[in-house]
Design brief:
alpha/beta; 6-stranded mixed beta sheet; 12 strands; 33% helix; globular
C-alpha cells in the first residue's frame, strides 16, 4: 500500500534567544501547526489520525514529558496518540519515513509527522550533559563538539576558509532573494506571540506576529565573513558566520494511505520514494550524507541525474562543501533558496522543514524528484527522496 503526503505546514524559523519565539514553547508551536494542518484537509476527521510522530533533538525540559502525546491530545483530541523520536538533526525527516513505512506495512492509514525544537529554551546538549565514561574511553570522538568535527572535515577534505565564507555569503544571498519573492509564504503558518512583563510595577503586554524566517542577514558580505574569528579552534576556519544558526521552529506533514486518498477524493502533493541512513566516523560526522545518499538512490532505483533539486542541510559550510565534493553532487541544484547558514537550523524540526520547502519548490518549477539530506551528530547521515505530483 502506498503512502502519500497530502499537506505540509511549518512556522517561520526564528533566531534562538533573541528571536520571535524566544518565549514560545516548542510544543505550543507544534500544536498550532498540527491544528492548522488538519484544518487544511477538512475531509479527514482529526480523531482518525493513527499517530502523531514528533522529531526532537533535545526532548527534555520544556520539550520533555514525552511531548508527542501532549501535542496530539491538545491538537487533535484524547483519542489520538503521540510519540517523540530522536535522531538529532535527522529527526524531522525520520518521522516522515516512519509514517510512510507504517502505512506501507499496513500499520495505520493516517499520520501526522514532523518535528519541533526550541533552541531558545533547551541548550544544544541539554540541561545535564553526562557522557558515558566507557564511551569517552573507547569511542572518544563521539563526544567531540560539533564545531570541532567541522574543523576535522575542513582539514581532511581541504575545504578552505575562503570557500566556506563564499558558500555562506551565497546562502544569505539566495535566502534573501527567496524572501523577496515570497517563496515561503504559502508554507508558513503565522504565529501570534504575546510577551508579558513588568515595567514600572505595571503588567505590560507586547504582541507581535512571526511570519517570516528571521535568520537572513541582508548586509552580509564575503569580506565581512572573512573578518570573523574562529569560533571553535585556534587557527581554525569554522566561524559563527559559516555555521548554521541556532533556531526555533516547527514543521509537520500529513501522510495518508492510498485507500484514504481514494475514500476522501484527496489530492496528494508528494510521496517519500525512499529514505536511508548510514554511519561514519563520529569525528567526521558531517560526511554522513555521503553514505546515506547512495543507499537512498539504490532503494528508489534512481541516480543523481534523476534528482532535480536537493536540500542539503548546511550544518557548516565546510561540511556541506565536503559532501558536495565527495558525493559528486551538482551544486547548481543544491539549496536554491539558501540553507541553514542563512535560514537557521531548529534541529529536530529541520528535516520536515526542508521537506516542505523542497516539495513547494519542485511544484513551482514543475519538477519531479528531489532529495533532503543531512548529517547527524554522532556520525550518521540521512537522505530521503521525494516525488512531487
Amino acid at each position: 500500500m502506498e503512502a502519500y503526503i497530502i499537506a505540509g505546514y511549518r512556522t517561520a524559523v526564528a533566531k534562538s534567544k533573541k528571536g520571535g519565539f524566544r518565549f514560545y514553547r516548542s510544543d505550543d508551536l507544534a500544536v498550532q501547526v498540527v491544528k492548522s494542518l488538519l484544518a487544511s484537509v477538512p475531509a479527514i476527521n482529526p480523531a482518525e489520525v493513527d499517530d502523531v510522530i514528533v522529531g526532537c533533538a533535545n526532548p527534555e525540559g520544556e520539550q520533555g514529558l514525552q511531548m508527542g502525546r501532549q501535542i496530539s491530545v491538545r491538537a487533535l483530541g484524547k483519542e489520538v496518540p503521540g510519540i517523540v523520536i530522536n535522531r538529532y538533526c535527522a529527526s524531522g525527516l525520520e518521522s516522515i519515513a516512519m509514517a510512510t513505512a507504517k502505512i506501507r506495512a499496513g500499520m495505520g492509514e493516517i499520520f501526522v509527522a514532523g518535528g519541533t525544537e526550541s533552541m531558545s529554551m533547551i541548550p544544544m546538549t541539554g540541561y545535564k550533559l553526562s557522557p558515558s565514561y566507557e564511551t569517552a574511553i573507547h569511542t572518544p570522538d563521539y563526544v567531540v563538539g560539533m564545531g570541532l568535527t567541522a574543523e576535522a572535515v575542513a582539514k581532511r577534505y581541504n575545504i578552505s576558509r575562503e570557500a566556506q565564507d563564499q558558500f555562506s555569503y551565497e546562502s544569505h544571498v539566495k535566502a534573501a532573494a527567496a524572501l523577496d519573492a515570497k517563496k515561503f509564504a504559502g508554507q508558513i503558518l503565522p504565529i501570534d506571540v504575546t510577551e508579558v512583563l513588568v515595567e514600572n510595577n505595571k503588567r505590560v503586554e507586547r504582541k507581535w506576529t512571526v511570519a517570516e524566517d528571521e535568520g537572513v542577514r541582508r548586509d552580509t558580505t564575503f569580506e565581512g565573513l572573512m573578518k570573523l574569528k574562529p569560533a571553535f579552534a585556534n587557527g581554525g576556519s569554522i566561524t559563527a558566520g559559516n555555521s548554521s544558526q541556532t533556531s526555533d521552529g516547527a514543521a509537520f506533514v500529513l501522510v495518508v494511505s492510498e485507500a484514504v486518498v481514494k475514500r476522501h477524493n484527496l489530492q496528494p502533493i508528494a510521496r517519500l520514494v525512499s529514505c536511508a541512513v548510514g554511519g561514519v566516523e563520529p569525528l567526521y560526522m558531517g560526511m554522513g550524507p555521503c553514505v546515506a545518499i547512495p543507499k537512498a538512490l539504490k532503494q528508489s532505483n534512481l541516480s543523481l541525474n534523476d534528482i532535480n533539486l536537493i536540500e542539503l542541510n548546511e550544518a557548516f559550510a565546510a561540511q556541506a562543501l565536503a559532501v558536495v565534493q565527495e558525493a559528486g553532487l551538482n551544486s547548481e541544484i543544491i539549496n536554491v533558496n539558501g540553507g541553514a547558514i542563512a535560514l537557521g537550523h531548529p534541529l529536530g524540526c529541520t528535516g520536515a522543514k526542508l521537506t516542505i520547502q523542497l516539495i513547494n519548490e519542485l511544484k513551482a518549477r514543475q519538477q519531479k524528484y528531489g532529495m533532503v539530506s543531512a548529517c547527524v551528530g554522532g556520525g550518521q547521515g540521512i537522505a530521503g527522496i521525494f516525488e512531487v505530483f
